[in-house]
Amino acid sequence: MQNTLERFERLDALVNNAGIMLLGMALHATVEEWDRMVSLNVSALLHVTHAAVPYLIDAAVTSRRQVADIVNVSSTAGRVARPGSSVYNPTKFGLNGFTEALRQELLAERVRVGVVEPGTVQTELTNHLGDAVRDAALRQVSAIEPLRAQDVADAVGYIVTRERRVAVNEMLLRAGDQTW
Ligand SMILES: NC(=O)c1ccc[n+]([C@@H]2O[C@H](COP(=O)([O-])OP(=O)(O)OC[C@H]3O[C@@H](n4cnc5c(N)ncnc54)[C@H](OP(=O)(O)O)[C@@H]3O)[C@@H](O)[C@H]2O)c1
Questions:
Q1: What's the fold here for domain 2-173?
Q2: Which residue, 56, 59, 60, 66, shows the most beta carbons closer than 10 Å to its own?
C-alpha cells in the first residue's frame, strides 16, 4: 500500500486477485496446503483490504467521479462445491460473503465492493499442483475453450469504470462451454 501511495499519491481501486488453488481430496491433502490457501486467499486479502479502505474512502471524497472500488476475484468455486476442492471452495465462498457484507458497510462511503467469479481461465493457476492432481484437473477442462486473462481483466475494467449511480455487485463469467 505504501509503494502504491508513494507512486500514485492516491488509491482509487483495489483488485484483490492474488490466489492459489491447491486441489486434491481432503483425505490425501496436507494441512500445510490448506494453510497456504487460507493464508493467501483469505487472510492476505483481508489484510490488504483493511489497509486500503481508508485511502479508498478518501479517494471517493476527493475524486471527480465521487466513487472508489474494491473488486474481489472469486470463482465459480465460490458458488459450486466439488470433490477435490473442499478447502479452495470455502476460501471463495467466504470471499463472496465478505464482499456482500463489506458492500453494505461501505455503501454510504461511496466505495463500491463487487465480486468477479471466473470459470476456467488459461493461467498458471494449475502449475502449483502435483503431477497427478494437475493432470486430472487439466483433463476435466480439456474439452472446453478456457477464458483468457484479458476476459477477466475486461470484466474488472467494466466494473470500475461505471458512473457512481451504477454498482455492478457480482459478475459470473464462465467459459462458454463450461457446465459447472
Ligand atoms: N485460472 C482459473 O481458472 C481461475 C478461475 C477462477 C478464479 N481464479 C482466481 O483468479 C485469481 C488469479 O489466479 P490466476 O488464475 O491468474 O493464477 P496464477 O496465474 O497462478 O496467478 C496467481 C497470482 O497470485 C499471485 N500470488 C500467488 N501467491 C502469492 C503470494 N503468496 N503473495 C502475493 N501474491 C501471490 C501471483 O503473483 P506472482 O506472479 O508475483 O507470483 C499471481 O499474480 C485467483 O484468485 C484465482 O483463485 C482463477
A1: Rossmann fold (3.40.50)
A2: 56
In this structure, which residue's CA is closest to atom 20 in ligand 1? 125
What lies within 8 Å, CB to CB, of 59 at 6+ separation is 10, 11, 12, 68
Ligand 1: residue of 15, 17, 117 to mutate (most ligand atoms within 8 A of CB) is 17
88 catalytic residue (yes or no) = yes
DSSP state of 103: H
- Model confidence band, residue 48 (pLDDT cutoffs 50, 70, 90): very high
Q: Could you read off the pLDDT of 56-82 as tens digits, one per residue? A: 999 999 999 999 999 999 999 999 999
How is the chain split into domains, by residue range? Answer: 2-173
Q: For the chain, give the number of residues.
A: 180
Kindly write down the DSSP assignment for every residue of 27-88, as one continuous string: GG--HHHHHHHIIIIIIIHHHHHHHHHHHHHHHHHHSTT--EEEEEE--GGGT---TT-TTH
